Fold:
Amino acid sequence: MTDAQVIKARGLVVRHGLVVAVAGASLDLVAGTTTGLVGESGSGKTTLARAIMGLTPIKSGSVVVDGRDLVTMTAPERRRWLPPRVQMIFQDPAASLSPRVRIGQLLAEPLRVHGMLDETSRIRQLLEALGLPFDLTGKYPHQISGGQARRVAIARALVLHPRFLIADEPTAGLDVSVQGDFLNLMSSLQKTLGLGTLFISHNLNVVARTTNRLAVMYLGKIVEEGATRSIFAKPSHPYTAALLSATSEIDPLRRKPRIILKGDVASQSGPPSGCRFHTRCPRAMPRCGRDAPELSTVDAVHRVACHFPIA
Amino acid sequence: MSSSLKSRDPEPAKTDAQRSALIEVRDLSVSFVDKHGERFSVLRNIDLSLQPKAIMGVVGESGSGKSTLANAMMGLLPKNAVKEKGDIILKGKVVDPIALRGRALAMVFQDPMNALHPVMTIGTQMVDAQRARFPNHLIRELRKRAAEMLTKVGIADPEKRLSCYPHELSGGMRQRVMIAMALLVEPDLLVADEPTTALDATIEAQIAELFRASRDTLDGATLFVSHSLGLVSELCDEVVVLYAGAIVERADVAELFNAPRHPYTRALIACEPRSDDQSDEAMVSIPGGLPDLSSLPAGCVFASRCLHASQICRQIAPPLVTAGQNHLAACWHPQ
Amino acid sequence: MFRYMLWQIASLIAVLVGAVAVLVMLTDLIPGDAASVLLGSRATPDAVSALRHSMGLDLPAYQRVARFLWNAAQGNLGTDAISGHPVTGTVLRAVPNTLMLAFGAIVVSIGLGLPLGVHAAEKPGGVVDRCTAFIAVGLISTPSFVIAILLLLVFSVRLGWTPVLGGGEGEGFLSRLHHLILPVVAVSFGWIGYIARQVRASLLDVLGQAYIRTARAYGLSNRTVLYKYALKVAIIPVVSILGVGIGDLIGKSVFVETIFGRPGLGALINSALRDRNYPVVQAGVFVVVVLFVVTNAVVDLIYAWLDPRIRERFFRHGDQ
Ligand SMILES: Nc1ncnc2c1ncn2[C@@H]1O[C@H](COP(=O)(O)OP(=O)(O)O)[C@@H](O)[C@H]1O
Ligand SMILES: Nc1ncnc2c1ncn2[C@@H]1O[C@H](COP(=O)(O)OP(=O)(O)O)[C@@H](O)[C@H]1O
Ligand code: SF4
Ligand SMILES: [Mg+2]
Ligand SMILES: [Mg+2]
Structure:
């Protein structure tokens, strides 16, 4: 695997004031695969994504993108280095389009900034791939439909042909009736362009359908990580198991016995000692309150941070 | 869960004749007036009947009129809503829901972050919520009831919690408070409008469990609005599918999910992603969108998106008719 | 909470020091040095420099600031350059008149503005709503001395209902109140409308909130919803507006009392300015600033008391 094909985040720590939003997380994004990131709200998913995008200061750790560590770069260097390599789409992507800029300009601007030529043909190709008519370029965001705006947001992210795409809850607020369409588009783009995607979502069923690898976050730490199939088939971390059991299923035959966790997510500003999950964990032992477990190997494609993983 | 409420097996389905409705909605139609003074129809000819202790699920895409139905049953329609016609019937009598709020009717809302008053304590709010129902009780008694109910919904140290402000509680905890508030009123109808939508998965599971368990305490019926088919299938006894303001299908839960008759219901179920289904097949969606509510089509409201639509579908609206045992569907070509 | 108080007191002191520094520098900027102005053009240079020395004008500015503050802390606001009496007594005699006017204006602004605002919110588009809108938009920006003169012309000169001049000092309480009416109206007029508008806007906003719907869903009466649930939140932004407004009210009071010839701080500063009696000007302005700072601190405390979310933030400050 060449450098260009991977983003390696190692031991990332990000603080917001007193809150340690990401408390030492490591994650690999590989071109051509989709990595899911799940966890309760406030667990640090967005912060982790923003750190990889160079959008938030990193306290310690490293993020190596195409062979260069963001931490060692100056801000202007990052602004040149990252956009052609990694792009991000946000929750409610349509709302992130600036209202006073025509779609065409919106798409051409990054190309110009990064000195790429033949704008028009690139934009034409991209819009075609997204199933959007070219005459959209003359319109303002409010003149197009919500569904189109969502696609335009993707187009803007892809116009520089990045190898990596980070999507932060891109389907939040979408009805199931249109969500499928959107996800199909994402996965076909991912395949044809060979993108490495980080897909943040709170809908586990969607994650199961759309990702190859999965990372589960709890209070700023990644507690389980591995091949999506393997984790769904046999979750090792008690939190993952509870999370998976919490998704509702229409088909009674598919329903898993539900593990109801006690209590709420603990506070990020004063996380529990030892394993951060021990206050809610049905398997907790005294040791869990003392030692913080490190990620360790379950099998070739699966790692977990738990003293007493589910066998 | 530390709750003392325990879930139990749902009662076996009764036949129609055995059912005696506790609360009914008859032929309810509601419109809204938009900024330009134009009317658009949001609910049309809604008929519902809810049995004691039963949970009725209401599903449908956003904009289909679920919240409007919930609000209409609570007498909480916004100012620009017009009730065109229809009645709410409680125990056989036509009633004005506004007069029954906090007595026979109680509600749990979607957003637990904003549904509680930010600068009043939980205790004050829980006491006030019982005033209409128990006008002759002393505040001390109402507070005691509130503390007991907090324990029942799984909140430890209730006395301390009563003097908390909402911002001192987590989202899940606030929703428990809201549910406790509703149960305190011992309502004939508990309306819950997307009570878990704003919550995380593990917290959603806790709250769903609480609703299931609430049947032990609550003799009234529950109207449970959700856009999550999975949750509704697990929690409810009966399900109503709304589309563009009309009931397109209604049946007992097992029947509805095992043998959906309406193409919309079938499509909606097909859209729901399944965790163990990791095939590379494309995911399903329903192309198109809700019709323009201010100029509804002459025929079936779903015709523009329906794969089975025929000539008659586009001309004449299908009536809601029997499509199986205790099963209604509004479709010319039920599947 | 303790930390919060300390912070408040520190910022209070900072404002005071800043104000005194500005005062001292202004005295420096005024053409003609205070001492020579006082002694007249025929004074000998020796006499001027002696007076300069006794007034402390020969000291560097920062020392004068420190000296003024140090003396003020001990209750000594300086010596009247003309009469040679301590200024403190003069100023303290003027303060109650100004305070009466300012607080009268605050009470009237809130006492009328709040209920009018509630009424306007209950019946948007009604008579009260439109009147308060007119007052707020039309009169908040009209200088209060214009209103004062108009009021004087109509009610005192024309109709003779109210006294023309003075604060009714040395007379009974009722007479004092009588003297207070017009000045209070002049100061608070625009504010009544402004507060009513603010109350209306924030009440309408609050009435659309989810927690109000909750209260209604539990059968609470309209009265309870409005006065207990909605107003509690709606007045929070109004209080913060008042924080700014109090400065304005005090400022207006100082102007208005000059017009009505009330022997308050305004009249005092005004006549001292005319006489170039700088120690009195300094002391008078200093007291106005103190009043301003203290009332602002009180408003902040009320704010915290009304909103537990803010209260908690203060407490947290204290914990760390
Ligand atoms: N800009 C910010 N300032 C302060 N705290 C923040 C900020 N953004 C996030 N946080 C805090 O960091 C934690 C992680 O947040 P976030 O990364 O948004 O989580 P997630 O995306 O998993 O919901 C939370 O406790 C959140 O309150
Ligand atoms: N206060 C309102 N004013 C105007 N239109 C409204 C209002 N509330 C809801 N609507 C409209 O009524 C329709 C149904 O909305 P709603 O009952 O909220 O649907 P749901 O809860 O199923 O998403 C939508 O088209 C919505 O835009
Ligand atoms: S009536 Fe026709 S258009 Fe409507 S759902 Fe049935 S088949 Fe489809
Ligand atoms: Mg997030
Ligand atoms: Mg709704």
Q: What stands out?
A: Chain B touches chain C through 31 residues (CB under 8 Å). The longest strand of chain B covers residues 39-50. Chain B has a mean pLDDT of 89.
